[in-house]
Amino acid sequence: MKIYSxxxxxIGFLCLFxxxxxxxxxxxxxxxxxxxxxxxxxxxxxxxRNLDKNANAYMQVIGLDVHKVFSQATNDIGTxxxxxxxxxxxxxxxxxxxxxxxxxxxLTWRIANFNYTGLAQGKFNIRLxxxxxPFGLEYQEDTNGTLRQLTxxxxxxxxxxxxxxxxxxxxxxxxVSLTRGSGNEFLSTDNPHLFSGRIGTPSYNNFITGISxxxxxxxxxxxxxxxxxxxxxxxxxxxQWQFMMxxxxxxxxxxxxxxxxxxxxxxSAQEDISSYLQIGYQRSENGELLSDKETSTSYWIAGIQWVxxxxxxxxxxxxxxxxxxxxxxxxxxxxxxxxxxM
Amino acid sequence: MKVEIxxxxxxxxxxxxxxxxxxxxxxxxxxxxxxxxxxxxxxMLYEQGSExxxxxxxxxxxxRSSVKELIPFTIHQSEVGKHTLYVVYKDSEHKxxxxxxxxxxxxxxxxxxxxxxxxRSIKGFYYQxxxxxxxxxxxxxxxxxVIQGKSFSQLxxxxxxxxxxxxxxxxxxxxxAPTLALLTLRSALKTLxxxxxxxxxxxxxxxxxxxx
Lengths: 342, 212
Hints:
The complex is a heterodimer of chains A (342) and B (212).
Chain A: H1 2-22, E1 37-50, E2 55-72, E3 75-90, E4 105-116, E5 125-132, H2 136-140, H3 152-155, E6 159-168, E7 173-179, E8 193-200, E9 207-220, E10 223-238, E11 241-252, E12 255-267, E13 273-285, E14 294-307, E15 312-323, E16 333-341
Chain B: H1 2-24, H2 39-45, E1 51-59, H3 61-70, E2 81-90, E3 93-105, E4 108-116, E5 122-129, H4 137-147, H5 152-156, H6 168-173, H7 178-198, H8 200-208
Antiparallel strand pairs in B: 1-2, 2-3, 3-4, 4-5
Helix pairs in contact in B: 3-7
């Protein structure tokens, strides 16, 4: 069974490879989507191994990545980013709730929005569609499709359908959004909603800070959960080193929570190899009093990624507990991913 | 059973062939959601209220070779592909161009936003991303002062014949942070060269528009 699932991925890879090589040079970069457009096919195979249970799970992904700038005579009007991805799971335990089971195949949306930039030279834009929730470090870093994730687990939602205002001013950058709270699916019977935002110092600096908020109902596997968060993040870049931290406090389903996260990353001079170490700490208090059933968990993650000048990247990551609880079990997980963009 | 083993072996050979071939292809991609408009660059390098109009072209291997005919080095192979030249306007009047380039430094990539005048002399630059503390305001100002207003040939005169070091004039001009100045100067020359080569038709069309 496992051999067949790997073969399925390999066949997919081969098909894409031969499509790209049987096409005349430049076809993939042709103006299929009109002037000022880019598009790419993105495919990956990910293996997840639970080292306690000796169980493997697989995820195969193929998607389209389109970027198009709409312009008029003397200015750009807006940017469309459109990224539908088909995701196939094999043997996944506790599959994300949007999947029917651990062997399901689903159309998912990474980013799919139009950012109207024609109002105030980028200082005030309006975004409509499916976009990343503006909160903390995750908002600043592009972690779509990579093993490396930052603090998404704290909030239970990475991207959502909705509307935002965003912009870049000389001394700060911001995005404030009102979204559906349902993640991948736009329609939801539970009618969740989410109000979030981040205001930060300019991202071209080597020291960046930001404050974020996140309040509303988030749709998950068990239905809607009320979440509130206030966060602070900071990043510092020094030659080939990157140091990041985020701390947030709030409530999840009426329970007080505190989350903190830190990462150290090193990149080679050509930035084709990167390695990172992450540490996360979460504390939850059930009830009104601080002493009521306080639980805390912590974990560490080490990862490495190689990105070739050929659209090909290989990454691996290992996660394990520092401290867990009888109710929150952090299992040792090894991930390996092969990704190719053409 | 034998047939299955034989199939598996063939499949393994195919996988190996695929991996080897993939490693030989030369294109680089980041997800397009990570592309950013050069809003800060416009705010820093042009008058308030300036707007940009994107022109995306495909930079080819041929373009890359053409750069080498003008200067003793060329753009990195990974830069072959789609790139954007921003045409800058103020009150619907053409003011210049803007282009961002990434350069390899020993501490990582340095991303430089280049403001180019209509006559293709350098208006100015700023480091959009530079992880060295050396890319500070005084050093940036010093390098900007030397480079501003210079044409392609004037900038070329600041480099040695091999393009690997500064010329005596260059050494005299860049008294502080000469290594960073060399990297920036090489970037300026590549930017001007590739702009004239890859966006030639678009620039010619623009020059025919009234008010250019």
